[in-house]
Amino acid sequence: MAGRMQGKVVVITGASRGVGEACAVACAREGAKLVLAAKTVDPDPRLPGTLHDTARAVEAAGGQALVVPFDARDAEQCTGVIEASVKRFGRVDAVINNAGAIFWSPVAEWSQKKFDLVFSVNVRAAFAISRAAIPHMRAAGGGHVLMMSPPINAAAAPGKGPYLVSKLGMTILAMAIDAEEKSNGIAAHALWPVTAIKTAATVNLGMGDDAEWRTPDILSDATVELLSRDPRKCSFRAWLDEDVLRDAGVTDFTKYRCDPGHEPSAMSIELVDPGWSARNGR
């Protein structure tokens, strides 16, 4: 039986591990062809997962994978990811802007180098990848752009300001793309988890434990649900993962627990504001 994304070509950045890998495998199970973009090609004992590991997982799930090593800080390499997708598969149907850099600290503790890194990897790369993909989506009659970015509450700013500005930039880009490209059949979305997700970043930064985390699968399942929809019938929304799944009829999230005996709490309202979308007419 054909999957919900049969024959679609999906570009994923940050695809070597964590959420990116989970999204790639989930899309492959639904019949998509994957373009896997990230920096990690060779194994690193400090950070498990490579592009080739994800490619093998995609192929095991029945999909096709194109590995494209790239540095998200380089705009030309971002454009090159899209060009590689078109050269190999002839099209781009969806882009998942998942590559990210995280750093939390008061503004006075940020170095200019750290600030530039976070903005380059988060908002600048998302802009470059999306801009390069839009003409090909227009030619194909439509597509999806997905930002892994949240609705933002202003109360979040202390201790996380520059990071959240970069993430808000991604959300605003999605909002703009959706409005500007609606007549071309292109939809854009933002997606963010309700609870913390267990990834190399959350583990290495000591951001909780298994009782406080869900697996990346909750985001990958929500991603498949969004990208499976007809983009011509979608309107921008800064989605939370639970809301996407509830919209699809899923109400039991226990399978996503990292610790089967504990349901993680929602992240502090200081990080995301679940009422943002409703209050802004989304």
* Average pLDDT reading: 90
Assembly level: single chain
Main sheet strand line-up: 3-2-1-4-5-6-9
In whole angstroms, how far apart are the ends? Answer: 34 Å
Uncertain spans, ≥5 residues at pLDDT below 50? 269-282
Identify the notable features of this structure and list them briefly.
282 residues, Rossmann fold, 7-stranded parallel sheet, two-stranded parallel ribbon, 14% strand, disordered C terminus
Question: What do these coordinates show?
Answer:
With about 280 residues, this protein is an alpha/beta fold. The protein has a single domain, classed as Rossmann fold (3-Layer(aba) Sandwich), CATH 3.40.50.720. About 40% of the residues lie in helices and about 15% in strands. It is built from 9 helices and 9 strands. The strands form 2 sheets. The protein has a 7-stranded parallel sheet with strand order 3-2-1-4-5-6-9, sandwiched between helices. A two-stranded parallel sheet has the order 7-8. Strand 2, helix 2 (about 50-60) and strand 3 (about 65-70) form a beta-alpha-beta unit. Helix 1 packs across helix 7 and helix 7 (about 215-225) packs across helix 8. The longest helix has 29 residues, at about 110-140. The radius of gyration is 17 Å and the shape is globular. It starts with 8 loop residues before the first strand and ends with a helix. Residues about 270-280 have low confidence and may be disordered.
